[in-house]
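Many introductory courses stop at the sequence. We go one step further.
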Amino acid sequence: MKKIFSYIILLLFLGLTCCVEPFAIKNVSYTDILVVDGFISTDVKQHRVALSRTTLISERKFIPEVDAQLLIRNGKGEIITLTETEPGLYDTPEIGGAVGERYQLLITTSNGREYQSSEVKLRSTPGIGKIYGRYLTNLPNGEKGIQIYVDTEDQSGSTNYFRWDYIETYEVQAPFASNYEWLGGNNYKFRNLPVGICYPSDTLKNVLIKTTAGLDQSKVSEFPVRFIPAESYIMRIRYSILLRQYSLSAEAYSYWENLRTINESQGSLYDAQPGIIRGNLFSITDIKETVLGYFDASEVSQQRVFFSPVDFQPFGYRKPDFQSSCRQLLPELVPLAQLGEYMELNKNKVLIWDAIGMEPNALFEMLPIHCCDCTSLGTNIKPSFW
């Protein structure tokens, strides 16, 4: 699945704050503002910076800032040049940042306006300690579900601000996998690639941060990462979460804390936002110009774990059904001679589930697409880690 920036929509409306003092949110009307989303880690890979322009809240789309020149300068004065690989997306060569090194992002847009970030120090990040789940039943409003937690600790005490994000992947199975593919007219063939088993992936849509500042130990216990309602089908067969952990500076933590506060007050990360939170980027051309976004650097620790329904069944969990309404349906039978006409009338609504008999008297069993094909939810190619 193509990598998606989890917060890119939010950053269309928000910037970050570069101070740790309380902030005041002001209501603002739409203004065309540059938005920057960039991060560099110790991983040897292409690191990406996204440039875009703000848009009307009602539009919620990515407007790329194209043909810009982007450079990353380290504390030694060495320059890394980024290349625009897709509109508004700029990648470094395959490199890895160094812990303790300082980095600064420099931007020149196609109209000659110059911007830069504050210098950020690439921080080390402790390893993730443990990821585990519990089936909870005594929740408000009678809700039940599986809560996934993380424990982590920095025994050196150098990390006091943590952030997490994740990619979750799960297996789904269509109740009646389509065995045949319609080719047009009365022509069909047996499917080469099954469409009954799929592996959707989703990314984090909330802000997950925690501070241990002021505590005797830099230790995080039972931090809630993901809640899966008992009726959600994503835990029906097998579920995996790849959790990524970052260390933050006090300034970066303040930024994420402000985003989290706004998120909770508005109800959703994608709801209309009430104002602007400034970040660590600014304009060289015009010091009064607002720039949104944050450029940061950190080592990334990650861990993947798997869960299955059997892990929680001893505690009362009952795996939910998927597309249960399909099991109440009887397939519609269509003769081979009428296959083309039927499919033209019902295109994008039904699929051939199976066939009865032999040509030329074959009958085809037709069912709604959502009962036969799960690829609208995710890929039907098993991930390498599965």
